[in-house]
Amino acid sequence: MASAAVSYPVLPEGFAFGVSTAAYQIEGAATEGGRGPSIWDTFAAEPGRIIDGSSGAVACDHFHRYREDVELMAGLGVDGYRFSIAWPRIQPDGSGRANPDGLAFYDRLVDALLERGIAPMATLYHWDLPQPLQDAGGWRNRDTTDRFAEYAALVGLKLGDRVAQWIPVNEPNVVTMLGHAVGQHAPGHRLLFDALPVAHHLLLGHGRAAAALRTTGAKAIGTAANHSPAWPATDAEPDRQAAQLYDTLWNKMFADPVLRGRYPEGFAELMPGPVEDDLAVIAAPLDFYGVNYYNPTRVADPATTLGSDIPEGIALPEQMPFTLVPVEGYPRTEFGWPVVPDGLRELLVSLTEEYGAALPPLYVTENGCAYADVPGPDGAVHDPDRVSYLDGHLRAVAEAIAQGADVRGYYTWSLMDNWEWAEGFTKRFGLVHVGFDTQRRTPKDSYRWFADLIAAQPGRS
């Protein structure tokens, strides 16, 4: 039971609380059960790509320990679990018949979740493209959208009767920008604006996978879009214009096609065609819109003298028509990201006002923080900064609802410490501490706080 001495954020009755993970970051078993290589296996094997030289080959060994992890979720009392399905586990070559061992793993996972009363929210693509598809051009190749629809149908036929919510593509803007424009993520390309076809094909892949899932009887289909409020560095017009351009590239170029069926002005002609036909597929109605939020972004015109220190972690080339500068005056996470809970309220309210009736119900599908958590002398992991972070952001969600945003759920990132992409094992986001050498799971103070928060909500006993 929650302590009466603690004041928790209060969300509406029926509000869904959950946790999120991604396959390559937790599963391990990279060569087991018929799984083929992904672009992240290849990327991690290239010297200098991952800060600590590690990979997700073992990660949190969730493939073998999923039942233990489901019990940790049950202990939290969460309503849902957002996980991703590893495409290379289902189609090792990126096409053809489904690998039965791969499907069987997710079949067991979904059943284990349902046995504990946890609704599965499945993401089809959380960045782990099968390497054979990358060898054929990856997301620069329109044929990849055909393969993605085929993969979606195979998974939907197996799991569609039990998965409550589906997300075809996680954060297409991050895949485009960090993976293909600036090269910080797999596959490591530095194409700058020549990466725009990747954005279009990811969006088309989303639409085609959503249509394929519908044919299998999928219950609810949404998305998980990374959004960041774009703040001009100053009130000067050049900075305001730079912030507007960044907002268009990071936010609207991906939201507008899905929600409005069109690209922002000037972008449709830059995309591979047939654009109008594709937009009709991309804009098929959704049942929910997922928002991944970590921090706002402060943007300046490159001609300013504010400098280009970028604690938010995106190293942009000098050729870009804007510069990212620090968001000052806020505490920072271990990643250097500013902790700005009100940015989440701003984002949820602004999406509601911007898209109006075109916006389906909202879910926060990722929100979390990295801190250097270590077990203390008592064996416990005390993470007061994460508790403060979660408290502040959930209060921001409650305020956004009070201001008219139709937010139905909040999924924190992440259930447990994991392999954090290019940062390897150096950043810990979890409610549960993982000893990567032993695979021992230790719930942190934030785990207990989150469990008490959920228990304290209206209508829960």
Characterise the protein shown here.
The chain has 14 helices and 13 strands. The protein starts with 15 loop residues before the first strand and ends in a 6-residue tail after the last helix. Helix 3 packs parallel to helix 5 and helix 9 packs across helix 11. The chain has 461 residues and is an alpha/beta fold.
Helices and strands in order:
Blueprint: E1 16-20, H1 23-26, H2 39-45, H3 62-76, E2 80-84, H4 87-90, H5 100-115, E3 119-125, H6 131-135, H7 143-159, E4 165-169, H8 172-181, H9 196-215, E5 224-226, E6 230-232, H10 237-260, H11 275-282, E7 289-292, E8 297-300, E9 323-325, H12 341-355, E10 362-366, H13 384-402, E11 407-413, E12 432-435, E13 440-443, H14 445-455
Parallel strand pairs: 1-2, 1-11, 2-3, 3-4, 5-7, 6-8, 7-10, 10-11
Antiparallel strand pairs: 8-9, 12-13
What's a concise summary of this model?
The protein is an alpha/beta fold and 461 residues long.
**CATH superfamily heading:** Glycosidases
Which range does the strand content fall in? 5-15%
Beta-strand segment tally: 13
| CATH architectural type | Alpha-Beta Barrel
- Strands in their spatial order, largest beta sheet: 4-3-2-1-11-10-7-5
pLDDT < 50 stretches: 305-314
Overall structural domain count: 1
CATH classification class? Alpha Beta
List keywords for this structure.
8-stranded parallel beta sheet, 38% helix, 461 residues, TIM Barrel, alpha/beta, single chain
